[in-house]
Every structure is written in structure tokens, then in C-alpha cells.
Amino acid sequence: GPAQEVIVSNSNRNFYDTLYLNNNVVCTYRVPDLIAKTTLGTAISDHGIKVKTEYPTQVTMINYDYLRGGMTIVREFKQLGDEYMALSKIGNNPDIISILAIRDCKVTVSPSVNTNYATQPFTQILTKGEVITLTSHTQNKDGLSGTTVSFKNINTDFPIPGAVFINSNFITNPQTSCCADDMDHQEIPYKEWGTSYFVPIIKNVFNYLLQPRISDVKIIAKTDGTIVKIQGQTHHLNKKEIIEYALQTEALVPSNYPI
Length: 259
Fold this sequence. Notes:
259 residues, mainly beta, four-stranded antiparallel sheet, 42% strand
């Protein structure tokens, strides 16, 4: 769109800046040390960053260090929800879930495995912009998949929106048993889950593999009695149950309940 004002800040107002961008202009912003820092390869951040624009924009978050990097599209405020269930990456690697409060709230977390916070469900009060980070302490192929997060008003228990990000900071490709990477994505709230997905095949871009590349599809159920159909196969899932499927062609994946 036309030239616009873009305000970038963190919630405690220690950092505030205003940019002016014209149509199709991209601005890359490095988070200053007062918001986030790196210690022994572990990203540490206790407050999120707010981006407010006059006209529609797209915001991308990039995490990287010397050998690996990851990128995720940041969802616009209206796309956030009050209930989430995590779906982790492929591989036997530790996961990190970052939970961000959009406003003062009460967050309830039910971890699927032992974490740095707890194994049992817990509730914590967060201030606007505050972030808590869960790290899995259990090695398994599904990581923190099935962990649930809900956000509520501190005084009324009325549901309010929040944001959840998940990161696998070291991924091993199940097809090649190789290679470090950093996988990030922002979780989709329950309200955005659907019952019909078209899954494309990812073409091979690495010639040295000398084999067709496979797209691994991972699915988690929200509700008991979920039926998922993939390439002629029918799978019956209960809540938090996961299936992983290797696709060599594009596929339509329908289900009777949201997945």
C-alpha cells in the first residue's frame, strides 16, 4: 500500500521505534540485546515485540546462529486464539514452546512430557508481553506434541487471545539420519483447525541424496473418535493421538473432526 508508519516496540516500553515504509519495501529488524540475548546458543527473551501498522503488512520471524536457522510467519492479532494444542516436529529432538501474553492473563499449561516447569498441569499469571518458555526433558519422536495451552482473564476467567510458538532447535532428517536445522512455527489455535487439507509433495532439491524426496505428514487429533483418511487408508484417533505418514504424491486429507 501507500507509505505508512510502522511502530515497533516491546511491552515494557524499554524499546520503541517508528519506521516509515513505502510500497513493497522490506525492513529487517534485529532485536536489540535489551529484549533478547544469546547465551551458549540458547535464545532468551522475557518480552515479546509489538508491530503496529497503518496498512496490511506481513511479519516474519527469523531465528539463526552459526550453523542453523529457522523462519516462521507471525500471525496477525485477529488470528490468535485462547486455546492451543502443540504439534511438534519430526525426529527425536528436544522441543521448546514459547507462550506469549498479549495482555495480562492467566495461562494454564498441560505438558505432554516432563518439562523444565513441570510434568503436571500448572497455571501461571503473565503480564502483557511476558513470555514463558517450556523445554522438553523427555526424548521421544513427538516431543511436546499434545501439550495444551489456554489463556484467560485473571479476574473473570473469560477466554482471551494469546500466542504460542514452538521450536525444535536441532532436527535429524528421518530419511537420511543427517543434518542440523532449526524448525520454528507459530501454533494455530483450536478455532482455526480444519477438517480438509491438501498436502503438496516437496520436490527434491538436494541432488546428493540420489533418491526421491518424501513429504512427512504429521497429524494430531483434537477430539476422541476422529477419523482421518490418507491415500486410501483410514486412521482412527483419540484426543492428542498422533499419526505420521510419508507421502510421495500430493494428497487430500479429510477428517470428521478438526485436526
